[in-house]
Write a structure and sequence with these properties.
Chain A is mainly beta and about 110 residues long. Chain A contains no helices and 11 strands. With about 110 residues, chain B is mainly beta. In chain B, strands 2, 4, 5, 6, 9, 10 and 11 form a 7-stranded mixed β-sheet that branches. In chain B, strands 1-3-8-7 form a 4-stranded antiparallel β-sheet, with no helix packed on it. Chain B starts with a strand and ends with a strand. The chains are: A mainly beta (about 110), B mainly beta (about 110). At the A-B interface, β5 and β10 of A face β4, β5 and β10 of B.
């Protein structure tokens, strides 16, 4: 079955720096790749997603890139702020509905001011 | 619109017992997925229900089962509880037509003693 690996497991940056989190997936049939942010004690929330027919997507300070050939995708956060501190999960799905998500193990991002 | 709700929020059970968790999706959402979240394994997909039918299933033993009702509400049942079943159980709903965001509920924290 699908396997998603995520690196690094922890990431500490200074406010204003950029943060990059990388994920690789194993199943070439996967076609939907969302990123979720989970703050302590709260539910995961979608921050950005990308489909396999797109190479890059950007939303303000957040961007995601996808390399289908290499089967990896990355989350880029620019101008980090303390409120970006959270656990970030990448995921992959191989159905059109974008459900049945297989998640990476998560990255704990700490932004210090 | 009201968000995804889950009941109960907290449960304490003993080994060998069974438990039923409930999830009410966002109005109009027909897909409900269940995930188990633990510190060691992260977020793991259990199963997805769409229009009262199980559409996708993860790699969990048969002790884990679910169902969906005609109003899209879903229940998850775990029989013969084991200590390792202690986890946060999250459900997520989506329109699941043409793809789209999964919205997570607050979760049910299950502790097995």
């Amino acid at each position: 079955g699908e396997n998603v690996e995520q690196h690094p497991s922890t990431l500490s940056v200074q406010e204003g720096d950029s943060a990059v989190i990388k994920c690789t997936y194993s199943d070439s049939a996967s076609n939907y790749f969302p990123w979720y942010k989970q703050e302590l004690g709260k539910r995961p929330q979608l921050i950005i997603d990308i489909r396999s027919n797109v190479g890059e997507k950007k939303d303000q300070r957040i961007a995601v890139t996808l390399n289908k050939t290499a089967k990896h995708f990355s989350l880029h956060i620019t101008e980090t702020q303390p409120e970006d501190s959270a656990v970030y999960f990448c995921a992959a799905s191989k159905n059109q509905a974008g459900t049945a998500l297989i998640f990476g193990k998560g990255t704990t991002l700490s932004v210090s001011s | 619109k009201a968000g995804v709700t889950q009941t109960p929020r907290y449960l304490i059970k003993t080994r060998g017992q069974q438990v039923t968790l409930s999830c009410s999706p966002i109005s109009g959402h027909r897909s409900v997925s269940w995930y188990q979240q633990t510190p060691g394994q992260g977020l793991q997909f259990l199963f997805e229900y769409f229009s009262e039918t199980q559409r996708n299933k993860g790699n969990f033993p048969g002790r884990f089962s679910g169902r969906q009702f005609s109003n899209s509400r879903s229940e998850m049942n775990v029989s013969t509880l084991e200590l390792g079943d202690s986890a946060l159980y999250l459900c997520a709903s989506s329109l699941a037509v043409g793809g789209g965001e999964q919205f997570f509920g607050p979760g049910t924290r299950l502790t097995v003693l």
